[in-house]
Amino acid sequence: MTIFQGDINRNTVILRLFLLTGISLAFAFFIFTNTYEDSLYSYLVFTTLIVALVVINLLSLRVFTQSRKDVINKVNADNMVTLLDNISDICCICDKDFRFIYWNKAAQEISGYAFEEIAGKRFDDLFKSASTPERDKLIGQMMMEKRKSLTFSYEAFMKGVLNQFEITVFPSGENYIYLVRNITDKLLIEQQNNRTNKILEATSDLVAMVNVQGQNVYMNYAGVKLLDEKNNAGNIRRSLMEMHPPDVYKYLITEAIPYALKHGTWQGESRFITSEGKTIPVSQVIIAHLDSQGHLEYISTIARDISKEKQAEEELKKINFELDHFVYRASHDLRAPLTSIRGLVEISLEEKDTQKLKQYMSFVGESAKKLDNYIINLLSISRNDRLEMEQRPIDFSILIQEAIDELRFLKNADRINITWDISCDGQFCSDLIRLKIIFKNIISNAIKYQRINIANSFLSINISGSPQLIRAVFTDNGIGIHEDSKERIFDMFYRGTELSDGSGLGLYIVKSVIEKLKGRIQLHSKISEGTTTIIEIPGYSMKKEADQEL
User: Fold this and answer.
1) Which of 31, 313, 375, 412 has its CA 20 to 30 A from that of 245?
2) Could you tell me which of 460, 454, 463, 479 has the C-alpha nearest to residue 417?
3) Is the pLDDT confidence value at 393 over 50?
Protein backbone atom coordinates (compact mmCIF):
# COMPACT_ATOMS: atom_id res chain seq x y z
CA MET A 1 0.00 0.00 0.00
CA THR A 2 2.98 2.32 -0.19
CA ILE A 3 1.69 3.59 -3.48
CA PHE A 4 -1.08 5.46 -1.70
CA GLN A 5 1.17 7.43 0.56
CA GLY A 6 0.89 11.19 0.15
CA ASP A 7 -2.03 13.51 -0.56
CA ILE A 8 -5.07 12.03 -2.36
CA ASN A 9 -7.02 14.09 -4.91
CA ARG A 10 -9.32 13.29 -7.86
CA ASN A 11 -6.59 13.06 -10.53
CA THR A 12 -4.49 10.79 -8.35
CA VAL A 13 -7.46 8.48 -7.69
CA ILE A 14 -8.35 8.21 -11.42
CA LEU A 15 -4.75 7.55 -12.39
CA ARG A 16 -4.38 4.83 -9.77
CA LEU A 17 -7.75 3.30 -10.83
CA PHE A 18 -6.70 3.00 -14.47
CA LEU A 19 -3.35 1.56 -13.42
CA LEU A 20 -4.96 -1.16 -11.27
CA THR A 21 -7.56 -1.96 -13.95
CA GLY A 22 -4.88 -2.28 -16.66
CA ILE A 23 -2.78 -4.60 -14.56
CA SER A 24 -5.86 -6.72 -13.75
CA LEU A 25 -6.87 -6.94 -17.44
CA ALA A 26 -3.43 -7.96 -18.52
CA PHE A 27 -3.28 -10.59 -15.82
CA ALA A 28 -6.75 -11.98 -16.73
CA PHE A 29 -5.98 -12.00 -20.46
CA PHE A 30 -2.79 -13.95 -19.81
CA ILE A 31 -4.65 -16.55 -17.72
CA PHE A 32 -7.54 -17.12 -20.06
CA THR A 33 -5.57 -17.21 -23.29
CA ASN A 34 -3.42 -19.95 -21.86
CA THR A 35 -6.10 -22.00 -20.09
CA TYR A 36 -9.49 -21.93 -21.85
CA GLU A 37 -10.62 -22.46 -25.41
CA ASP A 38 -12.19 -19.72 -27.43
CA SER A 39 -15.82 -20.18 -26.39
CA LEU A 40 -18.75 -18.13 -25.12
CA TYR A 41 -18.33 -19.56 -21.64
CA SER A 42 -14.70 -18.43 -21.48
CA TYR A 43 -15.63 -14.91 -22.51
CA LEU A 44 -18.33 -14.71 -19.82
CA VAL A 45 -15.92 -15.89 -17.20
CA PHE A 46 -13.33 -13.42 -18.47
CA THR A 47 -15.82 -10.52 -18.37
CA THR A 48 -17.06 -11.44 -14.89
CA LEU A 49 -13.49 -11.63 -13.64
CA ILE A 50 -12.70 -8.18 -15.03
CA VAL A 51 -15.81 -6.61 -13.43
CA ALA A 52 -15.02 -8.30 -10.14
CA LEU A 53 -11.46 -6.98 -10.22
CA VAL A 54 -12.62 -3.44 -10.96
CA VAL A 55 -15.20 -3.54 -8.15
CA ILE A 56 -12.64 -4.94 -5.75
CA ASN A 57 -10.16 -2.16 -6.67
CA LEU A 58 -12.77 0.52 -6.26
CA LEU A 59 -13.87 -0.82 -2.87
CA SER A 60 -10.30 -1.15 -1.69
CA LEU A 61 -9.57 2.40 -2.82
CA ARG A 62 -12.69 3.72 -1.01
CA VAL A 63 -11.77 1.90 2.18
CA PHE A 64 -8.24 3.26 2.04
CA THR A 65 -9.39 6.81 1.29
CA GLN A 66 -11.78 6.78 4.24
CA SER A 67 -9.07 5.33 6.46
CA ARG A 68 -6.72 8.05 5.26
CA LYS A 69 -9.27 10.74 6.04
CA ASP A 70 -9.79 9.33 9.51
CA VAL A 71 -6.05 9.39 10.11
CA ILE A 72 -5.79 13.01 8.90
CA ASN A 73 -8.78 14.09 10.97
CA LYS A 74 -7.32 12.45 14.05
CA VAL A 75 -3.96 14.14 13.48
CA ASN A 76 -5.66 17.53 12.96
CA ALA A 77 -7.79 17.04 16.06
CA ASP A 78 -4.74 16.16 18.14
CA ASN A 79 -2.93 19.22 16.82
CA MET A 80 -5.95 21.43 17.61
CA VAL A 81 -6.15 20.08 21.15
CA THR A 82 -2.44 20.69 21.61
CA LEU A 83 -2.85 24.25 20.34
CA LEU A 84 -5.89 25.03 22.52
CA ASP A 85 -4.30 23.49 25.62
CA ASN A 86 -1.44 25.96 25.29
CA ILE A 87 -3.69 29.03 25.14
CA SER A 88 -3.62 31.03 28.38
CA ASP A 89 -7.30 32.07 28.10
CA ILE A 90 -10.37 29.89 28.61
CA CYS A 91 -11.08 27.94 25.41
CA CYS A 92 -14.00 25.57 25.07
CA ILE A 93 -16.03 23.89 22.33
CA CYS A 94 -19.80 23.68 22.57
CA ASP A 95 -22.25 21.79 20.40
CA LYS A 96 -25.24 23.39 18.70
CA ASP A 97 -27.10 23.31 22.03
CA PHE A 98 -24.20 25.18 23.68
CA ARG A 99 -23.15 22.17 25.77
CA PHE A 100 -19.48 21.67 26.54
CA ILE A 101 -17.66 19.01 24.51
CA TYR A 102 -14.14 20.36 25.10
CA TRP A 103 -12.48 22.26 27.98
CA ASN A 104 -8.80 23.31 27.73
CA LYS A 105 -6.23 23.24 30.52
CA ALA A 106 -6.35 27.01 31.10
CA ALA A 107 -10.11 26.75 31.64
CA GLN A 108 -9.57 24.10 34.29
CA GLU A 109 -6.93 26.22 36.07
CA ILE A 110 -8.92 29.48 35.92
CA SER A 111 -12.35 28.10 36.80
CA GLY A 112 -11.25 25.24 39.03
CA TYR A 113 -13.54 22.80 37.20
CA ALA A 114 -12.21 19.66 35.51
CA PHE A 115 -13.75 18.72 32.16
CA GLU A 116 -15.45 15.71 33.71
CA GLU A 117 -17.40 18.08 36.00
CA ILE A 118 -18.76 20.28 33.25
CA ALA A 119 -19.02 17.86 30.31
CA GLY A 120 -22.52 18.01 28.84
CA LYS A 121 -23.49 21.11 30.78
CA ARG A 122 -24.63 24.26 29.01
CA PHE A 123 -22.47 27.34 28.75
CA ASP A 124 -24.98 29.38 30.79
CA ASP A 125 -24.87 26.81 33.62
CA LEU A 126 -21.23 27.56 34.29
CA PHE A 127 -21.12 31.25 33.38
CA LYS A 128 -24.27 32.59 35.00
CA SER A 129 -24.86 35.87 33.20
CA ALA A 130 -25.38 39.13 35.05
CA SER A 131 -25.84 41.12 31.85
CA THR A 132 -27.93 38.62 29.79
CA PRO A 133 -26.59 39.49 26.35
CA GLU A 134 -28.68 38.35 23.36
CA ARG A 135 -26.10 35.72 22.51
CA ASP A 136 -28.31 33.43 20.46
CA LYS A 137 -29.49 36.36 18.35
CA LEU A 138 -25.92 37.56 17.82
CA ILE A 139 -24.73 34.09 16.84
CA GLY A 140 -27.68 33.77 14.45
CA GLN A 141 -26.74 37.03 12.79
CA MET A 142 -23.14 35.85 12.55
CA MET A 143 -24.22 32.67 10.75
CA MET A 144 -26.54 34.55 8.39
CA GLU A 145 -23.88 37.10 7.53
CA LYS A 146 -21.29 34.29 7.22
CA ARG A 147 -18.95 36.08 9.56
CA LYS A 148 -15.94 34.11 10.74
CA SER A 149 -16.18 35.25 14.36
CA LEU A 150 -18.24 37.23 16.87
CA THR A 151 -16.93 39.14 19.90
CA PHE A 152 -19.09 40.48 22.72
CA SER A 153 -18.83 41.48 26.40
CA TYR A 154 -20.28 39.27 29.09
CA GLU A 155 -20.77 39.79 32.81
CA ALA A 156 -20.98 36.53 34.72
CA PHE A 157 -20.48 35.05 38.16
CA MET A 158 -17.63 32.61 38.52
CA LYS A 159 -17.04 31.06 41.95
CA GLY A 160 -19.61 33.51 43.28
CA VAL A 161 -17.63 36.54 42.12
CA LEU A 162 -18.82 38.87 39.36
CA ASN A 163 -16.31 38.94 36.52
CA GLN A 164 -16.06 40.78 33.24
CA PHE A 165 -15.43 38.58 30.20
CA GLU A 166 -14.69 39.24 26.57
CA ILE A 167 -15.98 36.28 24.50
CA THR A 168 -15.12 35.49 20.89
CA VAL A 169 -17.12 32.76 19.12
CA PHE A 170 -15.85 30.88 16.05
CA PRO A 171 -18.28 28.58 14.18
CA SER A 172 -16.76 25.17 13.45
CA GLY A 173 -19.15 22.91 11.56
CA GLU A 174 -22.06 22.22 13.86
CA ASN A 175 -20.05 23.26 16.90
CA TYR A 176 -18.86 26.58 18.33
CA ILE A 177 -15.40 27.38 19.62
CA TYR A 178 -15.48 29.84 22.54
CA LEU A 179 -12.42 31.93 23.44
CA VAL A 180 -13.16 33.51 26.82
CA ARG A 181 -10.88 36.23 28.25
CA ASN A 182 -11.32 37.39 31.84
CA ILE A 183 -10.81 41.14 31.56
CA THR A 184 -11.84 42.03 35.13
CA ASP A 185 -8.29 42.90 36.22
CA LYS A 186 -7.67 44.72 32.97
CA LEU A 187 -10.77 46.86 33.47
CA LEU A 188 -9.79 47.55 37.08
CA ILE A 189 -6.35 48.66 35.92
CA GLU A 190 -7.92 50.84 33.23
CA GLN A 191 -10.28 52.36 35.79
CA GLN A 192 -7.37 52.98 38.13
CA ASN A 193 -5.39 54.54 35.28
CA ASN A 194 -8.38 56.72 34.40
CA ARG A 195 -8.68 57.88 38.01
CA THR A 196 -4.94 58.52 38.12
CA ASN A 197 -5.11 60.47 34.85
CA LYS A 198 -7.97 62.56 36.22
CA ILE A 199 -5.94 63.32 39.34
CA LEU A 200 -2.88 64.20 37.25
CA GLU A 201 -4.92 66.46 35.01
CA ALA A 202 -6.62 68.15 37.97
CA THR A 203 -3.46 68.91 39.95
CA SER A 204 -1.91 72.36 39.67
CA ASP A 205 1.61 70.88 39.63
CA LEU A 206 3.48 69.97 36.47
CA VAL A 207 3.60 66.19 35.95
CA ALA A 208 5.63 64.77 33.07
CA MET A 209 7.11 61.46 31.95
CA VAL A 210 10.35 61.16 30.00
CA ASN A 211 11.60 58.04 28.23
CA VAL A 212 15.19 56.75 28.32
CA GLN A 213 15.99 58.79 25.20
CA GLY A 214 15.09 61.97 27.09
CA GLN A 215 11.91 62.62 25.10
CA ASN A 216 8.83 63.92 26.90
CA VAL A 217 6.09 61.33 26.33
CA TYR A 218 3.44 62.79 28.67
CA MET A 219 2.68 66.13 30.27
CA ASN A 220 -0.47 67.08 32.16
CA TYR A 221 -2.54 70.19 31.53
CA ALA A 222 -0.87 72.18 34.32
CA GLY A 223 2.54 71.48 32.77
CA VAL A 224 1.36 72.45 29.30
CA LYS A 225 -0.05 75.69 30.69
CA LEU A 226 3.02 76.46 32.81
CA LEU A 227 5.51 75.97 29.98
CA ASP A 228 3.29 77.60 27.32
CA GLU A 229 3.34 74.35 25.38
CA LYS A 230 1.10 73.94 22.36
CA ASN A 231 -1.10 70.90 22.71
CA ASN A 232 0.29 68.98 19.76
CA ALA A 233 2.84 66.26 19.17
CA GLY A 234 5.48 68.71 17.97
CA ASN A 235 5.86 70.84 21.08
CA ILE A 236 4.53 68.47 23.72
CA ARG A 237 7.48 66.17 23.02
CA ARG A 238 10.27 68.65 23.71
CA SER A 239 13.27 66.81 25.03
CA LEU A 240 14.55 66.96 28.60
CA MET A 241 17.45 69.09 27.38
CA GLU A 242 15.12 71.58 25.69
CA MET A 243 12.95 71.98 28.78
CA HIS A 244 15.84 73.04 31.05
CA PRO A 245 18.63 75.64 30.90
CA PRO A 246 22.04 74.11 29.99
CA ASP A 247 23.43 74.29 33.53
CA VAL A 248 20.30 72.71 35.01
CA TYR A 249 20.23 69.97 32.36
CA LYS A 250 23.88 69.15 33.06
CA TYR A 251 23.17 68.92 36.78
CA LEU A 252 20.12 66.69 36.24
CA ILE A 253 22.08 64.30 34.02
CA THR A 254 25.19 64.12 36.18
CA GLU A 255 23.74 64.42 39.68
CA ALA A 256 19.96 64.31 40.07
CA ILE A 257 19.01 61.38 37.81
CA PRO A 258 21.90 59.14 38.96
CA TYR A 259 20.82 59.86 42.55
CA ALA A 260 17.23 58.91 41.67
CA LEU A 261 18.46 55.69 40.03
CA LYS A 262 20.29 54.77 43.21
CA HIS A 263 17.75 55.91 45.81
CA GLY A 264 14.48 55.91 43.85
CA THR A 265 13.78 59.66 44.00
CA TRP A 266 15.56 63.00 43.93
CA GLN A 267 14.14 66.25 45.28
CA GLY A 268 15.42 69.79 44.94
CA GLU A 269 15.10 73.09 43.11
CA SER A 270 15.68 73.56 39.39
CA ARG A 271 14.44 75.67 36.50
CA PHE A 272 12.33 75.05 33.42
CA ILE A 273 12.31 76.98 30.14
CA THR A 274 8.99 77.80 28.49
CA SER A 275 8.49 77.46 24.75
CA GLU A 276 8.92 81.26 24.62
CA GLY A 277 12.29 81.10 26.39
CA LYS A 278 11.15 82.32 29.83
CA THR A 279 12.87 80.72 32.83
CA ILE A 280 10.65 79.46 35.67
CA PRO A 281 12.07 78.35 39.05
CA VAL A 282 10.49 75.15 40.35
CA SER A 283 10.59 72.75 43.25
CA GLN A 284 11.11 69.40 41.50
CA VAL A 285 10.88 65.69 42.33
CA ILE A 286 12.39 63.10 39.96
CA ILE A 287 11.32 59.44 40.21
CA ALA A 288 13.21 56.64 38.43
CA HIS A 289 11.00 53.76 37.23
CA LEU A 290 12.86 50.47 36.69
CA ASP A 291 11.80 47.30 34.89
CA SER A 292 11.97 43.79 36.37
CA GLN A 293 15.66 43.51 35.39
CA GLY A 294 16.54 46.74 37.17
CA HIS A 295 17.00 48.76 33.98
CA LEU A 296 15.67 52.29 33.66
CA GLU A 297 12.28 52.20 31.91
CA TYR A 298 11.24 55.86 32.19
CA ILE A 299 11.47 58.89 34.46
CA SER A 300 8.56 60.82 35.91
CA THR A 301 8.85 64.28 37.41
CA ILE A 302 6.64 66.53 39.51
CA ALA A 303 7.40 70.24 39.56
CA ARG A 304 5.79 73.19 41.32
CA ASP A 305 6.19 76.78 40.19
CA ILE A 306 7.90 78.70 42.99
CA SER A 307 8.19 82.03 41.15
CA LYS A 308 6.03 83.79 43.75
CA GLU A 309 8.00 82.24 46.61
CA LYS A 310 11.27 83.31 44.97
CA GLN A 311 9.90 86.79 44.42
CA ALA A 312 8.74 86.94 48.04
CA GLU A 313 12.15 85.69 49.12
CA GLU A 314 13.87 88.45 47.12
CA GLU A 315 11.47 91.03 48.52
CA LEU A 316 12.15 89.73 52.03
CA LYS A 317 15.90 90.04 51.43
CA LYS A 318 15.32 93.57 50.19
CA ILE A 319 13.16 94.39 53.22
CA ASN A 320 15.72 92.93 55.59
CA PHE A 321 18.48 94.90 53.90
CA GLU A 322 16.43 98.09 54.07
CA LEU A 323 15.56 97.35 57.69
CA ASP A 324 19.21 96.85 58.62
CA HIS A 325 20.11 99.98 56.69
CA PHE A 326 17.21 101.85 58.27
CA VAL A 327 18.15 100.86 61.82
CA TYR A 328 21.75 101.87 61.23
CA ARG A 329 20.94 105.22 59.61
CA ALA A 330 18.06 105.98 61.96
CA SER A 331 20.13 105.33 65.06
CA HIS A 332 22.93 107.49 63.62
CA ASP A 333 20.63 110.34 62.59
CA LEU A 334 18.74 110.27 65.87
CA ARG A 335 21.91 110.20 67.93
CA ALA A 336 23.55 113.13 66.13
CA PRO A 337 21.12 115.87 67.32
CA LEU A 338 20.89 114.26 70.75
CA THR A 339 24.70 114.33 71.08
CA SER A 340 24.69 117.95 69.98
CA ILE A 341 21.98 118.84 72.50
CA ARG A 342 23.84 117.08 75.30
CA GLY A 343 27.07 118.86 74.46
CA LEU A 344 25.38 122.27 74.32
CA VAL A 345 23.70 121.61 77.68
CA GLU A 346 27.06 120.73 79.30
CA ILE A 347 28.64 123.90 77.91
CA SER A 348 25.68 126.01 79.03
CA LEU A 349 26.00 124.78 82.61
CA GLU A 350 29.47 126.28 82.85
CA GLU A 351 28.78 129.42 80.81
CA LYS A 352 28.21 132.70 82.68
CA ASP A 353 27.69 134.95 79.66
CA THR A 354 23.98 135.50 79.03
CA GLN A 355 24.38 136.18 75.31
CA LYS A 356 26.30 132.99 74.78
CA LEU A 357 23.71 131.08 76.77
CA LYS A 358 20.99 132.38 74.44
CA GLN A 359 23.09 131.34 71.46
CA TYR A 360 23.58 127.85 72.92
CA MET A 361 19.85 127.54 73.56
CA SER A 362 19.20 128.54 69.96
CA PHE A 363 21.47 125.70 68.81
CA VAL A 364 19.64 123.34 71.14
CA GLY A 365 16.39 124.42 69.58
CA GLU A 366 17.69 123.74 66.04
CA SER A 367 18.90 120.28 67.03
CA ALA A 368 15.58 119.52 68.72
CA LYS A 369 13.76 120.69 65.59
CA LYS A 370 15.83 118.34 63.41
CA LEU A 371 15.11 115.53 65.82
CA ASP A 372 11.39 116.33 65.74
CA ASN A 373 11.32 116.40 61.92
CA TYR A 374 13.13 113.11 61.79
CA ILE A 375 10.65 111.50 64.17
CA ILE A 376 7.77 112.90 62.12
CA ASN A 377 9.23 111.25 59.01
CA LEU A 378 9.59 107.94 60.81
CA LEU A 379 5.99 108.19 61.97
CA SER A 380 4.92 108.91 58.37
CA ILE A 381 6.64 105.73 57.19
CA SER A 382 5.05 103.69 59.97
CA ARG A 383 1.63 105.24 59.41
CA ASN A 384 1.76 104.54 55.68
CA ASP A 385 2.54 100.84 56.31
CA ARG A 386 0.04 100.28 59.11
CA LEU A 387 -2.99 102.50 58.69
CA GLU A 388 -6.00 101.38 56.68
CA MET A 389 -7.13 103.52 53.79
CA GLU A 390 -9.53 106.22 55.01
CA GLN A 391 -11.34 107.58 51.98
CA ARG A 392 -13.01 110.99 52.02
CA PRO A 393 -13.75 113.89 49.60
CA ILE A 394 -10.64 116.01 49.02
CA ASP A 395 -10.58 119.82 48.86
CA PHE A 396 -7.16 120.48 47.32
CA SER A 397 -7.21 124.22 48.10
CA ILE A 398 -7.57 123.54 51.81
CA LEU A 399 -5.02 120.73 51.62
CA ILE A 400 -2.37 122.94 49.99
CA GLN A 401 -3.02 125.88 52.33
CA GLU A 402 -2.71 123.71 55.44
CA ALA A 403 0.61 122.26 54.16
CA ILE A 404 1.96 125.79 53.54
CA ASP A 405 0.85 126.98 56.97
CA GLU A 406 2.65 124.08 58.68
CA LEU A 407 5.83 124.87 56.74
CA ARG A 408 5.82 128.67 57.22
CA PHE A 409 8.54 128.52 59.86
CA LEU A 410 11.05 126.82 57.54
CA LYS A 411 14.08 128.89 56.68
CA ASN A 412 13.43 131.13 53.65
CA ALA A 413 9.81 130.01 53.44
CA ASP A 414 8.78 133.65 53.00
CA ARG A 415 11.02 134.06 49.89
CA ILE A 416 9.18 131.62 47.64
CA ASN A 417 5.93 132.41 45.82
CA ILE A 418 3.58 129.42 45.89
CA THR A 419 0.58 129.40 43.57
CA TRP A 420 -1.92 126.72 42.59
CA ASP A 421 -4.58 126.07 40.00
CA ILE A 422 -7.24 123.35 40.43
CA SER A 423 -9.51 122.17 37.60
CA CYS A 424 -10.89 118.82 38.74
CA ASP A 425 -14.25 117.81 37.25
CA GLY A 426 -16.34 116.18 39.93
CA GLN A 427 -15.62 115.12 43.49
CA PHE A 428 -12.29 113.33 43.97
CA CYS A 429 -12.06 110.97 46.95
CA SER A 430 -8.89 109.56 48.50
CA ASP A 431 -6.92 109.22 51.75
CA LEU A 432 -6.48 112.74 53.12
CA ILE A 433 -3.65 111.93 55.54
CA ARG A 434 -1.53 110.28 52.85
CA LEU A 435 -2.21 113.03 50.31
CA LYS A 436 -1.13 115.59 52.91
CA ILE A 437 2.15 113.73 53.45
CA ILE A 438 2.82 113.82 49.69
CA PHE A 439 2.01 117.53 49.23
CA LYS A 440 3.83 118.61 52.36
CA ASN A 441 7.06 116.83 51.42
CA ILE A 442 7.11 118.15 47.84
CA ILE A 443 6.34 121.72 48.97
CA SER A 444 8.98 121.39 51.71
CA ASN A 445 11.64 120.40 49.15
CA ALA A 446 10.76 123.39 46.98
CA ILE A 447 11.28 125.71 49.98
CA LYS A 448 14.51 124.09 51.16
CA TYR A 449 16.19 123.84 47.76
CA GLN A 450 15.25 127.19 46.21
CA ARG A 451 17.98 129.31 44.67
CA ILE A 452 18.85 132.03 47.18
CA ASN A 453 20.70 134.08 44.57
CA ILE A 454 17.54 134.88 42.58
CA ALA A 455 14.67 137.08 43.64
CA ASN A 456 11.74 135.33 42.01
CA SER A 457 11.75 131.84 43.53
CA PHE A 458 8.44 130.11 42.85
CA LEU A 459 6.47 126.88 43.09
CA SER A 460 3.41 126.39 40.90
CA ILE A 461 0.94 123.56 41.54
CA ASN A 462 -1.47 122.51 38.81
CA ILE A 463 -4.13 119.91 39.62
CA SER A 464 -6.46 118.46 36.98
CA GLY A 465 -8.47 115.33 36.41
CA SER A 466 -11.69 113.62 37.35
CA PRO A 467 -13.14 111.53 40.20
CA GLN A 468 -11.39 108.52 38.63
CA LEU A 469 -7.86 110.05 38.40
CA ILE A 470 -6.09 113.29 39.31
CA ARG A 471 -2.83 114.62 37.93
CA ALA A 472 -0.81 117.03 40.06
CA VAL A 473 2.18 118.87 38.54
CA PHE A 474 4.64 120.67 40.89
CA THR A 475 7.04 123.03 39.07
CA ASP A 476 9.78 125.07 40.77
CA ASN A 477 12.87 127.02 39.67
CA GLY A 478 15.14 125.69 42.42
CA ILE A 479 18.67 124.33 42.35
CA GLY A 480 17.68 121.13 40.48
CA ILE A 481 19.02 117.59 40.75
CA HIS A 482 22.22 116.15 39.24
CA GLU A 483 21.67 113.64 36.42
CA ASP A 484 23.60 110.90 38.26
CA SER A 485 21.35 111.30 41.32
CA LYS A 486 18.00 110.84 39.57
CA GLU A 487 18.04 107.04 39.72
CA ARG A 488 18.59 107.04 43.48
CA ILE A 489 16.57 110.08 44.47
CA PHE A 490 13.74 107.91 45.84
CA ASP A 491 16.04 105.62 47.87
CA MET A 492 15.85 105.62 51.63
CA PHE A 493 18.31 108.07 53.32
CA TYR A 494 19.64 109.30 49.97
CA ARG A 495 20.50 113.01 49.83
CA GLY A 496 20.64 114.37 46.30
CA THR A 497 22.72 117.44 47.20
CA GLU A 498 25.42 118.45 49.64
CA LEU A 499 23.22 121.37 50.68
CA SER A 500 20.74 118.97 52.21
CA ASP A 501 20.58 118.86 55.97
CA GLY A 502 17.51 116.62 56.06
CA SER A 503 17.14 112.91 56.80
CA GLY A 504 17.04 111.72 53.19
CA LEU A 505 13.59 110.23 53.80
CA GLY A 506 11.34 112.81 52.14
CA LEU A 507 11.10 111.52 48.56
CA TYR A 508 11.30 107.92 49.79
CA ILE A 509 8.18 108.59 51.86
CA VAL A 510 6.48 110.34 48.92
CA LYS A 511 7.06 107.40 46.59
CA SER A 512 5.99 104.82 49.21
CA VAL A 513 2.74 106.68 49.93
CA ILE A 514 1.94 107.12 46.23
CA GLU A 515 2.47 103.38 45.65
CA LYS A 516 0.15 102.69 48.58
CA LEU A 517 -2.48 104.78 46.79
CA LYS A 518 -1.90 102.76 43.58
CA GLY A 519 -0.47 105.85 41.89
CA ARG A 520 2.80 106.76 40.21
CA ILE A 521 5.37 109.57 40.27
CA GLN A 522 7.72 111.10 37.69
CA LEU A 523 10.50 113.58 38.30
CA HIS A 524 12.25 115.81 35.73
CA SER A 525 15.04 118.13 36.80
CA LYS A 526 17.98 120.20 35.51
CA ILE A 527 20.73 121.82 37.55
CA SER A 528 20.12 125.56 38.14
CA GLU A 529 16.83 125.43 36.23
CA GLY A 530 14.44 123.67 38.56
CA THR A 531 12.41 120.51 39.09
CA THR A 532 9.05 119.27 37.81
CA THR A 533 7.34 116.54 39.83
CA ILE A 534 4.29 114.81 38.33
CA ILE A 535 2.05 112.51 40.34
CA GLU A 536 -1.02 110.59 39.22
CA ILE A 537 -3.39 109.04 41.78
CA PRO A 538 -6.57 107.07 41.07
CA GLY A 539 -9.72 108.16 42.85
CA TYR A 540 -12.01 106.20 45.11
CA SER A 541 -15.74 106.09 44.39
CA MET A 542 -17.87 106.86 47.44
CA LYS A 543 -20.89 105.57 45.53
CA LYS A 544 -19.12 102.24 45.02
CA GLU A 545 -18.47 101.99 48.77
CA ALA A 546 -22.12 102.74 49.52
CA ASP A 547 -23.27 100.09 47.04
CA GLN A 548 -20.97 97.54 48.67
CA GLU A 549 -22.38 98.34 52.13
CA LEU A 550 -25.93 97.89 50.85
Assistant:
1) 313
2) 460
3) yes
